[in-house]
Amino acid sequence: MIDAGAADKAATLLEALPYIRSWHGRTIVVKVGGAALDDERLAGLVAQDLTLLTLVGVRVVVVHGGGPQVSDAMRVAGIEPTFVSGLRVTTDDSIEIVRQVLIGSINNALVSRLCSAGLRAIGLSGADAGLMVAARAAGPGGEDLGHVGRVATVQAEVLSSLLNGGYTPVIASVAPSANGQPLNVNADAVAGSIAVAIGAEKLVYLTNVDGLYADLGDAGSLISELKGDELGRMAASLSEGMQPKAKSIVDALEAGVGKAHILDGRVPHAVLLEIFTDKGVGTQVLP
Q1: Taking Cα atoms as reference points, which of 32, 43, 31, 22 lies closest to residue 195?
Q2: CA 111, CA 109: separation in Å to the nearest integer?
Q3: 3-state secondary structure of 176
Q4: What angle do CA 9, 201, 68 make, to 5 degrees?
């Protein structure tokens, strides 16, 4: 007699088969943040998900932030973090902390975890092989944000070469300006710019929330799907942390990225559930 659990597993694989077939050889960008970085167990599950995606032929580029970790390190150094519309004000004193945490700590740990899960992961920042150049950026009201930048250029061929060679790029959101000055770039914006540059079919954000809500205080108002122009109209009413995601998604969709997803990184295997099952999870944003 066939074990019922084994039959369920076979059914799951059969459900995933058409999605595996359709996504083979295609490219997705996954921005990892929130619980997927904070919680060791969840971080391990995300690493397994990304490994499985790669093994079935999906080309994956990983972008990460590390906002809470940077804030903690700044406080230890006696610097109180401040934000303008979700963008961190980065002073002369704090830019080195940003570099140390994002490149020296988080990127290294994430690459190690992904390699342990079976990926050929390779860590990068914008400075590596001239991957990204950033330009100084101001707040939406012209506020001086210090050493904060926006992505000006992306050398897509760097990522294409790595992907073609079977590597998984893991990118920290720090990039030099044209004169070599390091700038702190919002990781959500980096993910969107990378997705546009390499022609990704899907842009995924792993966050600490279920997705987008029509009414943040109403758990029943989760939006499962909406269009980019709808998201653009509601962006100003979103939380400061969600605003950069909304802007980068709208910009990416307008520039040709196929679709975007906001997923809860606290849900085990959220990425696989979204890509390889009929129902999906989180919020999907379409052009």
Answers
A1: 31
A2: 6
A3: strand
A4: 80
pLDDT digits (tens, 9 = 90+) for 2-42: 565 666 667 767 777 888 888 899 999 999 986 677 788 88
Nearest to 187 by CA among 134, 265, 233: 134
Secondary structure class of 93 (helix, strand, coil): helix
**Residue range 79-115, pLDDT digits in tens:** 999 988 778 999 999 999 999 999 999 999 999 999 9
Locate 255 and state its tokens: 């520039």
DSSP 112: H
Phi, psi angle pair for 269, to nearest 5°:
60, 35
Say what the pLDDT of residue 196 is.
98
The backbone torsions φ and ψ at residue 147, rounded to the nearest 5 degrees and listed phi first, read: -85, 60
**How many CB atoms sit inside 10 A of residue 11's CB?**
10
Q: Could you tell me which of 122, 123, 125, 126 has the C-alpha nearest to residue 135?
A: 126
Residue type for position 250: V
Structure tokens, 20: 């595996």
Angle at 236 between CA 196 and CA 150, to 5 degrees: 40
Residue 165 tokens read as 């060679």
Rounded CA-CA distance 197/192 in Å is 9
Q: What is the pLDDT of residues 60-80, one digit of tens each?
A: 999 998 988 999 999 999 999
User: In terms of pTM, does the model score above 0.70?
Assistant: yes
* Cβ contact 126:174 at 8 Å: yes
pLDDT digits (tens, 9 = 90+) for 217-246: 676 788 988 999 999 998 888 877 788 889
Dist. CA 136–CA 184, nearest whole Å:
9
Identity of the residue numbered 183: L
Closest CA to 152 of 128, 130, 122: 130
∠ CA 41-98-199, nearest 5°, is 70
Question: What's the pLDDT at 6?
Answer: 65
Residue listed under structure tokens 């001086």: 144
